[in-house]
Amino acid sequence: QSVLTQPPSASGTPGQRVTISCSGHSSNIGNNVVNWYQQLPGAAPKLLIFSNSQRPSGVPDRFSGSKSGTSASLAISGLQSEDEADYYCGTWDDSLNGRVFGGGTKLTVL
Amino acid sequence: QVQLVQSGAEVKKPGASVKVSCKASGYTFTSYGVSWVRQAPGQGLEWMGWISGYNGNTDYAQNLQDRVTMTIDTSTNTSYMELRSLRYDDTAVYYCARGSWHDSWGQGTLVTVSS
Which neighbouring-strand residues pair with B110? Predict the structure, then answer.
C-alpha cells in the first residue's frame, strides 16, 4: 500500500492528451514539491518533472506537471507510442521523515 | 555527462548481507547526495535512504534503518549500500540515484535472496 495514490492504469490513442493523478496528504504533497518519473520497460526510472512543474533539460514540452493542495497531476499531450511506460510520482513525507512514491501508473498507447 | 555505474547482480541466502556499489562520474561528487531506491519484481519504487556526498550524513527509511548502512568513498566517488539479515522479500532491483530528486539513476543491481 503506497503512501501516494495513483491509478494503476491509463490509456490513450496516439495524439491524445492523457492525465495521471497522484493523491496524498498534508504531510507529503500538501507541504512539499512533487517529482514525476518515467520508467520504460526493462529500464531504470528517469526524472520527468521536478518541483511540481519543471522539466529537466531534454524532456519534451509534451510533458507537464501541476499541483493543487494535496494532489498532483502529470499531463502528456500529443501521445506517442514511445510514451508507453510506468509513471511514478514522488515527494517527501514530513510524518515519515522520508521520500515516498506512488504505486505507479502503467500507461498504454492503444 | 552524469553517470552512475552499479556493481553486478548478487545471489544471497536468507540471513546474509549484501553490499552494492555505485560509482559516480561527470559531476562533483561532494556537491550531491546519493539516494537508494529498490523495486521488487513487478512492484513499485521504494525509497531506502540517502547519504550526503559532502559529509556522509545519512537518512534511512524507518522500516529499514535497523538493517541498512550507506557509506561513501570520496577518493573513488563511490557510494555503497549494505543490507543485512536478508529476507526473501528483499529480492529486488536496487538503484542508486543522484541527489534528493533522483535526477540521474544507475542501471540497477538485481539482488536475489534464495536458499
Answer: B93
Q: Determine phi and psi for A51, rounding to 5 degrees.
A: 50, 50
In the chain, the amino acid numbered A31 is N
Q: Does B59 touch chain A (CB under 8 A)?
A: yes
Tell me if chain A has a CB within 8 Å of the CB of B12: no
Please give the grid coordinates belonging to residue B22: 555505485
Mutation target for B interface from A22, A38, A96, A99: give the one with most B CBs within 10 A: A99
- pLDDT tens sequence for chain B (115 residues): 999 999 999 999 999 999 999 999 999 999 999 999 999 999 999 999 999 999 999 999 999 999 999 999 999 999 999 999 999 999 999 999 999 889 999 999 999 999 9
Q: Which pLDDT belongs to residue A1? A: 81
A7 to A22, B17, B23, B43, B95: CA distances (angstroms): 8, 35, 35, 14, 24
Instruction: Return all residues near B72 (Cβ < 8 A) that are at least 6 apart.
Output: B29, B34, B51, B52, B53, B56, B78, B79, B80
Q: Which of A79, A4, A78, A13 minimizes the C-alpha distance to A35?
A: A4
Closest CA to A64 of A89, A36, A88: A36
In angstroms, rounded to a whole number, what is the distance separating the alpha carbons of residues A84 and B70? 34
Write out chain A residues lying below 8 Å of B61, CB-based. Answer: 96, 98
